[in-house]
Specification:
homodimer; alpha/beta; Quinone Oxidoreductase, Chain A, domain 1; Rossmann fold; seven-stranded mixed sheet; six-stranded parallel sheet; 27% helix; 26% strand; globular
Chain lengths: 333, 333
C-alpha cells in the first residue's frame, strides 16, 4: 500500500462529450480514518449515462458534481483499513465510491456489502442498479402484458439488453430492439432472442417500426430520446406505456429537443412516465433473486465491456454516447 | 321551411388559422329521408379546438375531414322531419351534426336526445363533452389529492375554467390558472375562486409558477403545449401527473415543438398522460349528475361566448387560437 492515491476530479463542466480538459487526475494523500470510517480500495467503476447529467450545472435528482470534487460514480472495491465493524478489512463493498483509487465509507456514506464468492462484474451490471433499472422500469412502469409488442431503444446497452430479455420471458408477443450497428442488432436477435432489431444509423426507424409492429407499440422503453422517441410515439398502440428511463441523445445538448409527437399520447390515450431506480432500493432483493434465477437458468445473458485504467474513465463514459460499447461499461482500476 | 339549406365544407386544408379560402359556404337541396332517418335543424354549434386537428391531413383519433365534406362538429338542433321513432319531430338532439343548417341522423349516425326544458347552451358546454372533458380528465387522469397544487393552462377556456373549479371543490390546496389577459385572470380569481392566475402574455410563466407553487405542481392540466407546458414541467412536484388534454399552441404549426423539459418526468418520477373524452361516453351520466349538482348549487360557474351566424363558424374556431374568447365558444345559427 502506498501513501498516495489517484482520483479524477471535475475540472470544468463539459459541453458535449467529456474531453481531457473536463477532468483532472490528482494525486492525494492516503486519508487517515476517523472512528466509524472504513477505507476502500476501488477495483471497478460502474459507468452510467446519469454521471454525465451530474456534470451539468442543472437541477436533477441529485445535486451537480461540484468543481474540483471527485466524479460521483458507483464502484466496487475491498475494505483495506477499517474503524467500522460493519465493514471489516477484506470485505467487498459496492456503493457510490467515485472515480478514485481510495474511498472512505461510513454510516453517512454507506456501501453495500457483497457476499463472498460473487463475481464482481455482474454485481455492477445485471444484479446491480443497471439490471434493477431494467427489471423495475419494465415491469412496474411499463407493465407489459402477455402478447404485447415491446420496443427498447439503446437495446444493446446494459439496461436495454436486459429489458428486451425480461419482456421475452414475460411473454411479450414481439420484442424489437433499436441499436447502432449491425453487429449489435445481430447480437440482440441471435443471442438474446429479440424478435427483430433496427439499426438506427442505417434504417428509417419510424418506417421499420410500422412494419415490425403492425398492431402498434404497447410498451416503449426509452433510453435515448430525440428522433427515436418520436418514431416510437408515431407508432403507439392504444393505451401504450412509454417508459422514460433515459435520454442519452439529449444529455450532451445545450438545448434539448422535446418529443414533437407527444400529442399522440392524446390520440392513443397513452402515458409517458419517468422513474429512478433509487426509489426501488427496498425492493432490490426481490429483483435480484429473480435475476439470479434467470441468469443461472440461462434465460438472461449479459455482457460487460471492461476498460482498463482510472485515467480512461472519461473515455469510457463517452462510449455510452458514441455507442462504442455493447453491454455494461465498467472501468477496471 | 325552405327547400334549400346552407352548409360549410372544407375547400382546402388550412395552414395556420382558418382563412376564408379554407371553407366554402354551399347551398344544397333539402335531403329526402330514407327509412330510419331523421332531419335536424341545427341551432347551435359547439366550437372546439379538436375541429382544427381534423382539418389537417394527419393521423388522429378520427379520420381527417375530407375535402368538400361538411366540417365535422358537435351541434344541437331540433328534429323537423322523421322516419325514425327514436327521434320524433320536435325533439332536441345533440350530436356530430356538422357546420350545416340541416343534418340527417339515423342509427348509424346517432344523436343524443336532450330532455325537454334544458337550456341548450350548457348542454354544449358544462354538461356536454367540454364539461365532461374537464371532469374525467382531471379526476380520472390527474387524480388530484386533498391539498395538492393544481395548475391549468388555457384556464379561461371552456374546459380549463371548469377544471380549476372542480379542483377547488375537490380540496386542492392551490389552484393556479394560466390565461392570456388580465381580464381573464381577474375572472378566474374573483369569480371562479382560483387561488391565483398568470397572464402568459405579460408574465414569466416559469418564474411565477416557481413562486406560486413552492412545493411544485402535483397536477398540471394542459390544453396548450409549447412553452407553457415546458414551464410547468420545470416545476413539477414528485410523482406529478401531467394531463395532456390538448395542445392548442401546436395545432396550427407545420412542425410542432415537443416539450424539451420532458426529462423532468424522470427526475420527478412523474407521468404525462393523454385521454379522449370519447372513451368516457358510458360514464357521462355520472359526470353530468355531479355537474348538475355543482352548477345548481352555485359551486361551478360557466360562461358561453356566442357568435352569430353559420358563416362565422371559421372565425369562431380561430378565436380559440387567438384567445379572444372567455368560456365556451358557440355558434348560433
Amino acid at each position: 500500500m502506498t501513501d498516495t492515491y489517484r482520483r479524477l476530479v471535475l475540472a470544468r463542466r463539459p459541453t458535449g462529450n467529456v474531453d481531457p480538459s473536463t477532468l483532472r487526475l490528482e494525486e492525494a494523500e492516503r486519508p487517515a480514518l476517523a472512528e466509524g470510517e472504513a477505507l476502500v480500495e476501488v477495483q471497478y467503476l460502474s459507468i452510467d449515462p446519469t454521471i454525465r447529467t451530474w456534470m451539468n450545472d442543472a437541477p436533477g435528482y441529485l445535486p451537480p458534481i461540484e468543481i474540483d470534487a471527485v466524479v460521483r460514480s458507483g464502484g466496487l472495491g475491498t475494505v483495506v483499513e477499517s474503524r467500522n465493524d460493519d465493514y471489516p478489512v477484506g470485505t467487498t463493498v459496492f456503493g457510490m465510491l467515485g472515480w478514485t483509487e481510495l474511498a472512505v465509507i461510513s454510516a453517512d456514506d454507506p456501501a453495500t456489502v457483497v457476499p463472498e464468492g460473487i463475481d464482481p462484474l455482474p454485481v455492477l451490471s445485471v444484479f446491480g442498479a443497471t439490471g434493477m433499472t431494467a427489471y423495475f422500469g419494465l415491469l412496474d412502469i411499463g407493465q407489459p402484458e402477455e402478447g404485447d409488442t415491446v420496443v427498447v431503444s439503446g437495446a444493446a446497452g446494459a439496461t436495454g439488453s436486459v429489458v428486451g430479455q425480461i419482456a421475452r420471458i414475460k411473454g411479450a408477443g414481439t420484442v424489437v430492439g433499436i441499436a447502432g450497428s449491425d453487429e449489435k442488432c445481430a447480437w440482440l436477435v441471435d443471442e438474446l432472442g429479440f424478435t427483430a432489431a433496427i439499426n438506427y444509423r442505417t434504417e428509417d426507424v419510424a418506417a421499420r417500426l410500422r412494419e415490425l409492429c403492425p398492431k402498434g407499440i404497447d410498451v416503449f422503453f426509452d433510453n435515448v430520446g430525440g428522433d427515436i422517441l418520436d418514431a416510437a410515439l408515431a407508432n403507439l398502440a392504444m393505451k401504450a406505456r412509454v417508459v422514460i428511463c433515459g435520454a442519452i441523445s439529449q444529455y450532451n445538448e445545450r438545448v434539448p429537443v422535446g418529443p414533437r409527437n407527444y400529442v399522440s399520447l392524446i390520440f392513443q390515450r397513452a402515458r409517458m412516465e419517468g422513474f429512478l431506480i433509487l426509489d426501488y432500493l427496498d425492493r432490490f432483493a426481490e429483483g435480484q433473486a429473480q435475476m439470479f434465477e434467470w441468469v443461472l437458468g440461462g434465460q438472461i445473458h449479459h455482457r460487460e465491456h471492461v476498460v482498463d485504467g482510472l485515467e480512461h474513465a472519461g473515455d469510457a463514459l463517452n462510449m455510452l454516447f458514441t455507442g462504442e460499447n455493447t453491454g455494461k461499461v465498467i472501468v477496471k482500476l
